[in-house]
Design brief:
Blueprint: H1 2-14, H2 18-28, H3 49-52, E1 63-72, E2 79-89, E3 94-96, E4 103-108, E5 113-125, E6 130-144, E7 149-163, E8 197-213, E9 224-233, E10 252-262, E11 268-279, E12 282-297, E13 306-317, E14 321-330, E15 333-342, H4 347-350, E16 353-364, E17 370-374
Antiparallel strand pairs: 1-2, 1-16, 2-5, 3-4, 4-17, 5-6, 6-7, 7-8, 8-9, 9-10, 10-11, 11-12, 12-13, 13-14, 14-15, 15-16
Length: about 375
């Protein structure tokens, strides 16, 4: 699997511009580092930008707000994950590009500058209600390295609280062959329950690259928007044991990419996505694409102001799940739905049922990097 992943990474790099190829190769080196344990994850990873990479703060639009919810394995061992993020470019920079019309189109002049974001994530897992609540602050600085390219570096600092409810758990000492049922919940589990909640700091960093070539015209649909990123989470290796044994949270290394590739002179575009994460001994490799169809175009002027679009497709999480996904976009709003169909050995218990996920997103300016404003002369 490692050799196949390396081959795919090299193939993607070969097809990209020279600057992007260099950044991708540097980021690829992160995936070879050894680490331990596993964090919460989302199948719609592009809708959890600050949870994936702090360098994404303030990179997509002037203002972005996202809510994401995931319910997984509810019929076996329930996992519920919730996330909220808000990020903003400190200073918006727009210019007028169609001064001769009564409807003015604006686009970003430059991507350079500071972006910031906040994120709140909560994950509850299992019968013991293992709960992880985290609040993060992200800062990113963006540098425009060419007319089409932007590079961003970001840092993230957070506070995490973990808690557990011991009463929902069962222990080896409570199983007794002499009892009527073989299990005695009143038996002393002989475990140390002195600490059920801990708090620790968490630090992360990342790099993010965007390539956008948007030579768009009426029905042209010839855009090429590609983003790639690499991040390292839990830089400070915080202690997270309830029993004070100095067990450390492992580093998490992530590589991710996504894009919009228009099919010229049609209403269709491909929206591919790939994400690889390693937190030893666990790895996650998710890849796939959506097919996007423009339902409505608001503007007859040069630009890419689309009123509504619908996307349908799926992803595959290696040796774990097939993911069916659908996205509806209307003006500045987006709703995304996905469902994981379990294909791993665990399907014998889950009966193929995996995780349901829903996302809500708001962008300002309107999506697709362009917006419009009316005026009277």
């Amino acid at each position: 699997m490692k050799h196949n992943l390396l081959f795919l990474w090299l193939l993607i790099a070969y097809c990209l511009p020279a600057r992007l190829r260099l950044i991708l190769m540097l980021a690829g080196g992160l995936s070879t580092v050894y680490c331990y344990s596993q964090d919460m994850h989302f199948s719609q990873f592009t809708q959890a930008p600050l949870q994936v990479n702090p360098a994404q703060a303030g990179t997509t639009a002037w203002i972005r707000g996202i809510i994401i919810y995931r319910n997984q394995w509810n019929s076996v061992v329930p996992y519920n994950s919730f996330g909220f993020s808000f990020d903003q470019k400190i200073k918006k920079r727009w210019k007028q590009i169609s001064p001769k019309t009564r409807t003015l189109l604006f686009k970003s002049v430059t991507e350079k500058g500071l972006g910031w974001g906040v994120g709140v994530y909560n994950d509850r897992a299992g019968d013991g209600h293992m709960n992880t609540l985290q609040g993060n602050l992200s800062l990113a600085y963006q540098v425009q390295i060419s007319k089409e390219s932007m590079l961003s570096g970001g840092l993230q600092a957070g506070i995490v609280q973990r808690s557990i409810t011991y009463s929902g758990l069962t222990w080896e000492n409570q199983y007794s062959p002499g009892s009527a049922t073989g299990f005695d919940p009143s038996a002393n589990p002989v475990e140390n329950f002195s600490n059920s909640s801990i708090i620790y700091p968490d630090l992360s960093c990342g790099l993010f690259y965007a390539y956008r070539k948007n030579e768009r015209y009426m029905r042209g649909n010839d855009q090429r928007d590609i983003v790639l990123g690499a991040s390292v989470m839990h830089l400070n290796r915080p202690a997270y044991s309830f029993f004070g044994n100095n067990e450390r949270l492992s580093l998490r290394y992530m590589l991710h990419g996504s894009g919009i590739i228009g099919i010229s002179n049609t209403n269709f575009a491909l929206v591919p996505g790939v994400m690889y994460a390693k937190q030893t001994p666990n790895t996650e490799f998710l890849f796939g694409t959506l097919v996007r169809y423009m339902l409505k175009e608001d503007s007859k002027y040069t630009g890419y102001v689309k009123g509504a679009a619908f996307s349908l497709g799926g992803y595959y999480r290696y040796k774990d799940a097939a993911v069916i996904a659908a996205v509806m976009e209307f003006s500045a709003y987006q709703i995304g739905l996905s469902y994981d169909i379990n294909v791993s050995d665990f399907k014998a218990a889950s009966q193929g049922m995996g995780g349901f996920e829903i996302t809500l997103r708001f962008l300002n300016p309107a999506p697709f990097l362009f917006t419009k404003a009316s005026f009277n002369n």
